[in-house]
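Progress narrative, work stream C.
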Amino acid sequence: MPAPLPNWHPESLAARLPFLRRRARLAADVRAFLAARGYAEVETPCLVPVPGMEVHLRAFRTAYRPHLGAGEARTLWLRTSPELALKRLLVAGAGPVFELARVWRNGEASPRHAPEFTMLEWYRPGLALDGLMEETEALVRSACPPVVAHGGVACDLSLPFERISVAEAFRAHCRGLDILATVDPATAAGDGAALQRAAAAAGLRLDPTLGWEDAFFALLLDHVEPRLGRGRASFLTHWPAPQAALARRDPTDPRAALRFELFVARLELANAFDELTDPAEQRRRFEADVAARKALAGEEGWEVDEEFLAALAHGMPAGSGIALGFDRLAMLAAGAARIEQVLWLP
């Protein structure tokens, strides 16, 4: 078999060019869609002191060395998301904002992942999660053909998007397992032993050494996600509180968080929060994230983002926001099978 052509070779680019032209039209369409709804496009820094707070995301580290300007030598990172910067703009009064942001996640490489990729994020003060789902559905429908497919799975975007809670999905696809019964409503912590017992009672096999989070994701990936986004798109809503991240907990059931993920043709496309605005609660979560990251063998870590917490204490308006994988949206819009097909220089 001949060696693959380098990505700069004219024949290589020619093979990608139909997908890349579709990507360019998609970017213009997305900008027009959001501008028509009152969003301002912004640009926030890529080089930051804290790349993001997600425990299991690896970041690329670099260093600032004073040369022509003032300042002290310090460690900096390439951002894993523009989320914390965009929310500081909400505090500043920027109103509805969006960014087509270049982001980096170390070690991520697959037909659907690249270590450097584009994230579309948008935030609107005063918008509840139901409204954000309606807006997201409209954006995806306007940006893609009526029927999209990935990995042999088709999805009709003309159909209303399914809305199913994590609890409903576990009951339906994990033999009646009650996932929220394994969450402490007071502490928002998951009980690993309780989840192991519930899985065993349902006849589901789990590695007995797994704690709550790893057991939850094992069940989610094996039994739930493969059934989402088939035939029609799916919003998976109301995640268990241990997976709240930067989302508010559900005031009607503190075991759940006001968060959704979107699946189209079985492809995980977006993650969204009804934003947490309580700085004390956010600090507790960040400190737990820092401790959890430090406990991971061989992983580099960083401290709590104090600048973001200071902005949150100043007062962030209630609202919601979403991070959508733009390259994956381009794959669906263009009919690409692999992410490198929609990248100018993979």
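Work stream C, second folded protein:
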Amino acid sequence: MHGVTHNITAENAEVHSRKGVVASVLAFVKSPKGVHSLVVLTDVFALLLSGALFYVVRIHSGLLSDIEGYPFVVAMTTAVFAVMCWMFLFWFAGVYINVHNRALFDEYYSVLKVILFGFLFLVVAVYFGTESIPSGQRSYRLLTLLLYFLLVSGCVGFGRVFVRTVVKGLRRRGIGLRKAIIIGDSQRSRQLLDLFRATPELGYQVVGTVRTNQQVSQAFAQYALGTVDDLNEIIQKHNVEVSVLGMEHERDLVLQLMTETAVSYTTIKIIPDLYDLVSGRARAHHLYGIPLIEVNPQIMPVWEQHLKRLLDIGFSSMILLVGLPLWVITAIVIKLIDFGPILYLQKRVGLGGKIFTMYKFRSMQTDAEKEGISWTTQNDPRVTPLGKILRKLHIDEAPQFWNVLKGDMSIVGPRPERPFYVEKYTKLLPAYPRRLRVKPGLTGWNQVQAGKIVENVEFVRERIRHDFFYIENMSLRLDVEIIFRTILRVLQRKGQA
């Protein structure tokens, strides 16, 4: 009997183990990161395969017999290095963003542009970097590069088609769909509702519709989850990733939803009216004849985001290392004056509402907030004599370069605020949380534009206006301009004292 019980227990454990494996696989496939990882792995395999085929065709096919042979181990080592280079280019160019939410041609075209760029770079390197090689052999090398380009393009293309086929099959089974809501009733929004429900391979699962103040049809109302007043709760409850705005002639409402609600944190698709299309103010792509404008929450191009992060790391590292003697002296002087803490640690609200600890050289008395939280004002009596100097020269901000290195902040962006103020001003100004859509910065457009700091709603409105200008115009060019303007203000000693 004991043996039978042991066998049943073992079988149950095996069943649970299998269920756990299946659940893990399904969780991996359902997540956007899972599909992303599948595409990345397929690209790696395709690039390795193209390297192996290149070796076989070049060395063993006899088509390029004038080219000298080399060992297979050397060939594959070179192929692995090439894969690393290609994957970096793919990542830097952003070909993995919103993967498979585009038409196959658009998706492959974005990849092909990167491959073509790499091919042209290799051609230039061979043509101008091999003057000592006879022209005949140089022609053979260019021919081998063309062969490599065709193999890489073909293998990666077939890999993308394979993954797309797999993903479409999963979507037909309800796996890997992006949860969407349709806001506003119109003929086109009802058409889109029917299309998404009938064609899951498009990648969308409509969890329901949202009514506006306009009268709605029965076909739209039967899927309604609530009204626009319930929008934030609906998006949070159903984990909505895509918001389709289908209302007609309600432009003020569209702007309000895009800036003052949780819609701004989703991918936004707008069904335009004829005026938008005719006037040329909107550029739309078509989904089975239905025009859609897509507003992606991704504000900067991917390559600019990566370059911005590299600049953050490089600039912060340089400031911290080059200025190390000054930072050490500053720390010693702060400690000797009143034997209080050197650094002032404060909780701030970062990207997406994430709380992080911000570091500053202490410029105030140790009991500065004994009477409560308040902004630092011009000639604030709580600031120590040394603190006035540190603030004028902006030396007190130097430890924040460590926050930049950690990734909590960027060199340029809206200044991070304390949770107390975020909560306070969100109640007064519903659009305030939009500042949290980008990583906070050590300096920003408001810092190079604003005058005296005054803790009132009017000043906050002006700060928001400056921050929104930066968010809507984010670019490396604007970041460089803000950095130069900040340096100029520091040299002019226009800091807060």
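The two ends are 84 Å apart (CA to CA). No further action is required on this item.
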